[in-house]
Write a structure and sequence with these properties.
This protein has a single domain (2-208), classed as von Willebrand factor, type A domain (Rossmann fold). It is 34% helix and 16% strand. It is built from 5 helices and 10 strands. Strands 1-3-4 form a 3-stranded mixed beta sheet. The radius of gyration is 17 Å and the shape is globular.
Length: 210
């Protein structure tokens, strides 16, 4: 799940790294893409500004890596990550119906910077529990307290541009600078933490993404 807005480059680059890793590992894992904060709307639930990739579930390939790196366009639409999560759960249920998967996983990339509809929190928690084997992971910024001095998270400071590839052909993780939470981010962080706690999910920063 990807959010479209100011952090578009950084988030799409990190998402492409996850897909690229699947390629190098030569796994048979399948995945799908759900975008929120888009100008258009393409999902069975008709949630506004949420789009599901037309490819549905598929295995990792270089076309997907290229699409994430070169064709994701930022918008000024405020993306509701809760709406995106609801659509992703429905998408996961539809695509996995009648199939056997060891584990189902949702990875949410978002800085939680836009207002979200927290009224759906219980529905999300119940939906994850009903699917039984869903693992939710939130990947977001590295926060810092307001009284902390700015320190770059990595040798490249706040340069968010993609870095040259490694000897294996993998791109290095983008670097960024930790920033204080906004009030909206504090509220959203509390909501996502409640969801993660009640569903035994996980959370990590972009810099610590595995």
């Amino acid at each position: 799940m990807l959010k479209f807005k100011n952090k578009k480059l950084l988030i799409s680059e990190c998402a492409s790294l996850l897909v690229e890793r699947k390629l190098f590992e030569e796994t048979k894992d399948e995945f799908g893409l759900v975008f929120f904060g888009t100008e258009g709307t393409k999902n069975p639930l008709s949630y506004e500004n949420v789009e599901i990739s037309k490819r549905g579930f598929c295995r990792a390939d270089w076309d997907t890596v290229k699409y994430l790196r070169e064709h994701i366009v930022g918008t000024e639409v405020e993306g509701d990550w809760v709406d995106g999560l609801v659509v992703a759960l429905d998408f996961l249920r539809r695509e996995s119906e009648g199939k056997k998967y060891t584990t189902l996983k949702i990875v949410l990339f978002s800085d939680l910077g836009c207002p979200a509809n927290a009224d759906q929190m219980d529905d999300i928690i119940n939906g994850i529990k009903l699917l039984d084997n869903v693992d939710l992971t939130h990947i977001g910024p590295e926060w810092k307290d307001e009284d902390e001095e700015d320190e770059p998270n990595g040798m490249n400071g706040n340069n968010d541009e993609p870095k040259p590839g490694t000897s294996r052909g993998e791109a290095e993780k983008p670097r960024y600078t930790a920033k204080p939470r906004t009030k909206t981010q504090e509220i959203n962080e509390n909501v996502i933490n409640q969801i993660i706690h009640q569903t035994e999910g996980t959370a990590c920063s972009l810099g610590n993404m595995q």
